[in-house]
Amino acid sequence: MPDLGTHASFIIAAYAVTFVAVGALVIATLEDDRKQRRKIAELERLGIRRRSAKAPASPTVKSRSKPKAATTPAKRKTASRPGKTRL
Amino acid sequence: MTPMISLANPTRFLSLVDRVVPWLSVVVVITLGIGLYLSLFVAPPDYQQGETVKIMFVHVPSAWLGMLGYTLIAVAALGTLIWRHPLADVAAKTAAPIGATFTFIALVTGSLWGKPMWGTYWVWDARLTSMLILFLLYLGLIALWQAIDEPGRAGRAAAILGLVGAINIPIIKFSVDWWNTLHQPESIFRAGGPTIDPSLLIPLFVMAGGFTALFVLLHLIAMRAEILRRRVHALQRTQVEHAALAEA
What we know:
The complex is a heterodimer of chains A (87) and B (248).
Chain A: H1 8-45, H2 73-79
Chain B: H1 2-6, H2 10-42, H3 56-83, H4 88-118, H5 126-147, H6 151-165, H7 168-178, H8 198-247
């Protein structure tokens, strides 16, 4: 540990506050991220998924017919415009 | 503008975040590790302030990021109100707690630096007061988002507050030039170049780089969590609607 001189307590306190505040922020951010991922996974496990999400691949159903396009080119163009995309 | 438009797609944005986060985490750990080593073990004491100058290495980057966070909120507010970018209010909402934390650190470490140097923890001068107002603006924005349930309405209301509060950023920056303050004048980003010796300036820039990388990393993760939260709400709503239809 370096010699911090006569004002060591102020320097240590400043670094301690920084570590605690940043540490709390990191933990809270990571925990929230983990919580939302868990919730999404739980809903998907129950079969509830977004309309745009890919359905799970079924190994028993193999169709030779060409898959129907999900959207027309005009609709795709609209979907990529800012303000029109849903979260 | 094209990359911004392509990132307007939240799914594409989430995939980018998943790719960037591991690499950025490594950058944060390495940069902050080197920065702390230089700050605590290599940087010499200042000829006037002695070892208390070490507080500068956490105080100054925190103050910069407090202001950067609010600037980001103001730009995102334009994105919400003018371009209606779907990620703009997500970016603004998630930047607020991060910016508030760094502003809080700047206020507390500044206070702890002020006591041995000025003889007081606090004085109501222009720089300190405008930083306190910045912190209160962050708290106001966080409270506003908590108060309105519908994200679209909350985003627009917060965007207006965010834009109005942005006037405080140049006031913080130029407060030491416009008024007589106890706080020292601008000594890094000034017309005549920095007045700080390179032996102190290099650790400061490394720490600022590490703090900025940490801000970006936490912001990306928080944005990902917010997008997922909105998807969870939408899916839960769909689930309730389906259950109601089935009952009918």
